[in-house]
Amino acid sequence: MSGVSPNRPQDLAWLLRALSEEVPDIRGSVLLSSDGMLKASDGFDRTSAEQLAALASGLFSMARSAGTKFDDSNDVRQVVAELRSSQLYISWAGSNSVLAVLARAEADPAVVGFETARLIKAVRPFLHTAARPAAATSKRDPAT
């Protein structure tokens, strides 16, 4: 990855494709900002990727709230949901970033978890999402 700056936007879908190639039971994955904006995807059409990003953001946020209330920390490593025919893994992927991976039900959770963590660890600086600037407030003269 030499010559690639972690501070510039780039196409990260190839990283997600590599994960799917490493673990064939992965149906698709999305990289999103912690507030739910889609950054990259593999295995989904745009609409489905955006829907998964929004859902993953909500589940990750609820896990952070649970951690704050019951664990004295809002640090979340992973949220896992077992669905009827799929497994959903939502992992912290760096500053303001989350990775959601949808795998088939027969996928080995240890393999999916290990390969997802390995990917995140290897390229974490490139997965960071810059914080959004605060909305500008207009300073209007109340007399006008």
TrEMBL record:
Pfam entry (one): Robl_LC7
Domain named Roadblock/LAMTOR2: residues: 13-103
Classification via SMART domains: Robl_LC7
PANTHER family: SERINE PROTEASE INHIBITOR RV3364C
Protein name: Roadblock/LC7 domain-containing protein
Lineage: Bacteria, Bacillati, Actinomycetota, Actinomycetes, Streptosporangiales
